[in-house]
Amino acid sequence: MKKQKVVLLGKGRVGKTSIFKRFLQNEFHDNEVTTIQPQYLEKQVKVNTEKVTLSIWDTAGQERFRGLNPLFYRNSKAAIMVYDITDQESLDSLEDWLAELKNQVGHKIVLMIVGNKSDLKKKRQVSIEDAENLAKKVGAQHFCVSAKTGENIDEMFHELAKRVMKFVKENKTPLNTTKSRRNFALVNEDVETKKKKKKNNDGCC
Amino acid sequence: MLITIYSTNLHGTSKKIDYKMAVFLKLFFTSLEPLGFIVLQRAIFTTKHILLFTSNSIIFEKYTEKNFELLHRQVDNNFQKGSFQQYSYSDVCQILIDNNKLVIKFQKSQPISFEHDSKLYIANELSIRCDLFNKRFVNNESNKENMLIRKAIFPAIPKKHFGSFFENEKEEKKKILFFNNKTNKEELFQELKEELESYQKKTRNKKKEKESSFENGSEISEEEEEEEEDEEKVENKTILQNRKEIKLLDKNNLSSGSGSESGNETKDKNKNEKENQNDEENENEKEKENHNVNKKGRKNINISKTEKDKFKDVHDFFNRYFVLLTSKCQNKKIHSFDEYLKNDFTIENYLNPFCDTSETSEEIQNMNLENNNTRSNNTLHNLSLTGNNKKNNADHNHKDNNKKSSVQKYSFDEYKKKISKFEFFNCSFRYNLCINNLDFFQIKIILNEIIFQKDQSIFNTIIEFYKNFSIEGNNYERKKQFILNNKKKLLERIINNHFSEFLILLKYKYNKNKARRIILKIINDRLIELLVIPQYTKLIKIFDSKSKFEKEKNNMIKEYFKNNITQENVKIPVKLISKLKYKNARNYIKKICNVSLPIKKLKIFSKIGDLITQEVENQNLKISSLNTDAYISIFLYIILKTDIPNFYFHCTYTENFVDSAYLKEKEGFFLVNILTAVNYILNHASIEN
């Protein structure tokens, strides 16, 4: 299998990089001391004797760079949308993130909604039902994860790999259909242009 | 009759050159490529089309005879619109002549046929030079290009001869019409002769009047006369003497048949009659010639005064001009064109216009006798004969038949060796230009005008043509041998290029999979070198031009940097920049300008990212992890600190033209970070503006 691009999305200070590191390096730092690596890494995941390499991109979450994030989304096959359990706004903002993503990539993408900091159950503000409702709405899968303890993180990525595999296999065969669609689109365009021309001609005459 | 010609330079830039029709027709017979500044190889002028053969392509344009004068406008418009019909030589399959029609066959598209009319351009050949010298080159001498062309095309003739030629435009038009309307060339030649004779009588009368006035005032020493008379008697004359004499003789009006040493033996009946009539006049002329030789300095001045009157007639001009050229080439005394045809004309002279000057007159005479024999060889002779002069040459055949018994036979092989080079040249001229009917004297003139120096580059190209093409009748095609040789070369090339791969095959005899992998890698690399990189270089050229349009954005980045670069504005984490200056990264980013391929540019971006991480690692800073947030801010700092010309262009270029597979990986990550940084700056700058 080829490399599959996965993007991490979410509001600032949600814990995207900590999830990223827990999965790739199995590390976590409360006060983040000298863990310097480029925020891009690859990892192979085994799914029923088949291997998938996930190239995971950590994106910028701060507002000043948010407008420029669409550059990161290109060619991505999956997106992990992270929210903080202790912050209601982070879940609300996910819809905006989704809209941005779909503008760039379209509807063909594997989505995961992940609630981070599940170890802080006492400070929880976001209910699981709300999150799951949103996931259903979007067509995504919901996971509750803690980067600190490493809870559910491997499972979540394993599930993501499975879904990506499926998604790729489904999209391999209908190559002809895309062509036909393109042709169809072209035909439609021609018809439209002809109509327009006719209209213009009528106007002139 | 103005026509515009479009020529392409060697560098591929097209250039519009306004010529007279004359020049246009002239180019038809010539290839100016070796001169270096024009690549228009040939131009064919048919009854309905103009065909321009440039070094790259064939261009043609329709016209009607009525609208011939407006042709230049049509061509102008079409060229500007880009609707000119153009075909590259690679598309052309074959060029041939069928029933007076020129046909060009293409590999993919249908063939195109043109009606071929040789009369038109041959008839107008005379009016060429007049137009050219009077209106273009003489008036606009300041133009360097024009001077260059003049020097290239007309080296043999001094400028002063053409200064006052065709003063009135009306006369010029009349003469052009005269030539155009004549269908039978025999009639035309007769009329030319009659006009010549009438003109000669007039000029002689004028001379007599002038000489009578001149002889009274001039005194010449007897000693000088004797010395020079002795010199004239000597058979082996030096080249310089010959030239001087020829010049002086030429400046006089050219008498028909008098003064030629070798020509007295063979003369037609018609000519004899004319000569009997003009015997007395010829004697007078001889005296005048001697007179001219004696008084070189003084008489030259007198002649120059009367030039204006002398060269008003086209035919006289042509005769004079021809004599000048032929005499220069062959170092002989030639008095008129008719005389030359009858007496001095040989196949070798015709085929070899640049014969050696070292030969003595005796040798030349012998050669002529020998060469006369070759005329009996009808096959060769017929090959060399061309349209207009068939009549004249038919007379020679009659004469030669009478002489056959007295002269030794000339072996064909020896003869062929001598003239092989020039034979090639002549034939190629005809076949290259797709013409059957070419006047031999036209070729001669053109040869002398354009390739007066022995320019071997032309010969080489023509010889190559003969090597590669086979000629059958009027058609020529690529030789089979040439194709076979090419195949051999291909095989050799493959063996040379893939030598390393064969070695690998031998090395890993028993591990074929490994060998296959290695070979595939090598081939891939080579393919990239062969196919991809040249295309990229083309793209780069395009994008370099495009970068000029994106100057505004580049300038915006610069201005923003100068005015607003503060840590607060960019919101760069203080720790990351206050202690580190990223010197390595800043130095390395400057290499982008030197690199042309998008892949290499992308690798530079990734290298910068690595350098940043290294520098931060070395300092052991206590910072939160290097996010994209941190990266973008550091990239911002680096971009703004280093003034890189056209940085925005470099980013967009790599983004658009790098393989999309790279964008998913680490290099792509850094590129996106840099792009976000650049866009961030642009957004801020535009808001402030």
Low-pLDDT residue spans of chain B = 1-43, 65-76, 78-84, 116-142, 148-183, 217-277, 285-315, 345-412, 418-455
Given helix and strand content, the structural type of chain B is alpha+beta
Q: Could you give a short account of the major beta sheet of chain A?
A: 6 strands, mixed
What's the name of the CATH homologous superfamily of the largest domain in chain A? P-loop containing nucleotide triphosphate hydrolases
Chain pair forming the biggest interface: A-B, 30 and 31 residues
The count of β-strands of chain A is 6
H/E element sequence of chain A: EHEEHHEHHEHEHH
Which fold name fills CATH's third level, the topology of the largest domain in chain A?
Rossmann fold
Sheet bearing the most strands of chain B, described?
Answer: 4 strands, antiparallel
Radius of gyration of chain A: 21 Å
Global Rg of chain B: 37 Å
CATH architecture of the largest domain in chain A: 3-Layer(aba) Sandwich
Mean pLDDT of chain A: 78
Structural class of chain A: alpha/beta
How many structural units, i.e. domains of chain A? 2
Strand percentage of chain A: 15-25%
Strand percentage of chain B lies at 5-15%
Attribute tags:
heterodimer; A: 205 residues; alpha/beta; 2 domains; 21% strand; globular; B: 689 residues; alpha+beta; 4-stranded antiparallel sheet; 64% helix; Alsin (chain B); transmembrane (chain B)
